[in-house]
Amino acid sequence: MSKLTRDGDKLTIQPEQDIAGTKVDELKSEFKQALDEGVSQLVVDMAKIEMMDSMGIGLLIATHNSLSKKNQQLELINVSDDITKLLRLMRLDQHFLMNHN
């Protein structure tokens, strides 16, 4: 389960565990619900995320694609140095707004 904080049309989701394996499905349904509810800004607080696998990266890309169709953008905050390096290596930092810690 993630901590959800809503401020108007902005929803911040803070996953409690790494974005990997079976946890991706849980997070995917939280993202889908947020998109279905029409949030205009989706922020993922990655303060507690130490590891992300290919399924987690796929989830972020799919969420980004859904938001960009609506002219919106996914924002990642409190991203660890290791995950920031990974996303930059994959050139995904060009698609997400990112704020690393």
Structural topology:
Layout: E1 2-7, E2 10-15, H1 23-36, E3 41-45, H2 54-68, E4 74-79, H3 81-89, E5 97-100
Parallel strand pairs: 2-3, 3-4, 4-5
Antiparallel strand pairs: 1-2
Helix pairs in contact: 1-2
Protein described:
By secondary structure, the protein is an alpha/beta fold. It is globular and about 30 Å long. The two termini are 23 Å apart. Strand 2, helix 1 and strand 3 form a beta-alpha-beta unit. Helix 1 runs parallel beside helix 2. 38% of the residues lie in helices and 27% in strands. Strands 1-2-3-4-5 form a 5-stranded mixed β-sheet. It has 3 helices and 5 strands. It has a domain of 62 residues: STAS domain (Transcription Regulator spoIIAA, 2-Layer Sandwich). The model has no long low-confidence stretch (mean pLDDT 90).
Task: State the main characteristics.
101 residues, alpha/beta, Transcription Regulator spoIIAA, five-stranded mixed sheet, 5 strands, 27% strand
Give a quick precis of the structure:
With 101 residues, the chain is of the alpha/beta class. The chain is 38% helix and 27% strand.
